[in-house]
Design brief:
single chain
Length: about 350
């Protein structure tokens, strides 16, 4: 079967090969025929080593498809079911799950160290234990979440990561209050989803911050009240909040520099939500005095900061009701053979979300 493979961490190009085999099928597993997968910035972060991941690997973790085969003991799925690939499944038994913090369950991360593909030359890993830049993938049954038949594959794929992450950051982690002021730094697919979440919650001011003009224009269509470049953010703070700072600032880049900027533009007593996935050696510096004196809350948001299955259901309900625009997030569609052109579009910021149609 075909799959896009990264041979070594640090390479910026994938090779689309037809000699890859999905492995590991057995009890508790399912085989999925991928139909659509989105490009997420985390895929680039895995490719360049920001996010630790063994190689060679098949990137991709935001996907949807249909069940081809179910292993022994799988009772909740059957061939033909339409599913979203969930890269962070909850085991339901660990301390985090028992506390209701299923987004902190580590069972899914354990899968990242087990190869789920192979080639004639040896084993190949799937990013985050999945690997959706492929025609077929074998994953734990918990990684395959059924969705209704009226949800198109491309829409379902977005729900698998970017939309759940951004929307959940606003609705779950920040719990944005009606009438509040919000700034979102980084307006790709995840940032736009955070903007939509703030709009759904009734935020009065939503300032989108991004260096790419086309992304700023898109942010206005999705609910931002104004859109500025990073250099214009101080003026926007002055105009929107009389210089006090925003009630909520979402950092959706994953860099300490932008997190520091986000902190400085959050009002005293306000909330900084860290959504971007950054490097292990990139440290955010804050003084002990400002932490005490400003009383700003710093809230990391992992995969939307809430129960993933409930978040999927809520997203579908909002999409069906016309209150959440998911189709508009998809600005480009390409076949798997053009994956490298799509990656370049993500690097330059010309695409919000690219759908790889498989």
């Amino acid at each position: 079967m075909r799959a896009a493979v990264l041979h070594e961490i640090g390479q910026d190009k994938l090779e689309v090969l037809d000699d890859v085999e999905a492995t590991g099928f057995g009890p508790g597993k399912v085989r999925i025929r991928m139909r659509a997968t989105g490009l997420c910035h985390s895929d680039l972060s895995a490719m360049n080593g920001v996010l630790p991941q063994p190689a060679p690997l098949v990137p991709g973790h935001e996907g949807a498809g249909e069940i081809l085969e179910v292993g022994e003991d799988v009772r909740t799925l059957r061939p033909g079911d339409r599913v979203v690939v969930c890269w962070l499944p909850a085991c339901g038994a660990c301390p985090a799950c028992r506390r209701g913090q299923t987004e902190l369950c580590l069972s899914g991360f354990m899968n990242a160290g087990t190869p789920n593909f192979k080639r004639p030359g040896g084993d190949v890993f799937g990013f985050a234990g999945t690997g959706t830049f492929t025609e077929e993938v074998v994953v734990d049954a918990g990684c395959a979440v059924p969705v209704p038949d009226d949800v198109p594959f491309d829409i379902a794929a977005l729900i698998g990561c970017g939309v759940t992450t951004g929307l959940g950051a606003a609705l779950n982690t920040a719990d944005v209050e009606a009438g509040s002021s919000v700034a979102v730094i980084g307006c790709g697919g995840v940032g736009i989803s955070a903007i939509q979440g703030a709009r759904l919650r009734g935020a009065a001011e939503i300032v989108a911050v991004d260096p790419v003009a086309s992304r700023r224009e898109s942010a206005l269509k999705f609910g931002a009240t104004r859109a500025v470049s990073p250099g214009e953010l101080p003026d926007a703070k002055q105009q929107a909040t009389a210089g006090e700072g925003f009630d909520y600032v979402f950092e959706v880049v994953g860099k300490s520099a932008t997190a520091r900027t986000a902190y400085e533009h959050t009002r005293r007593g306000g909330t900084l939500v860290v959504v971007g996935a950054g490097a292990m050696d990139d440290f955010l510096q804050l003084s002990m005095f400002e932490l005490f004196f400003d009383e700003k809350r710093i809230l990391p948001s992992m995969y939307g900061g809430g129960d993933v299955l409930r978040s999927y259901e809520r997203t579908i309900a909002l999409w069906r009701a016309g209150r959440l625009d998911l189709a508009g997030l998809i600005t480009h569609r390409v076949p798997l053979a053009e994956i490298n052109e799509a990656l370049d579009g993500m690097r330059t910021g010309t695409a919000l979300r690219t759908c790889i149609e498989i």
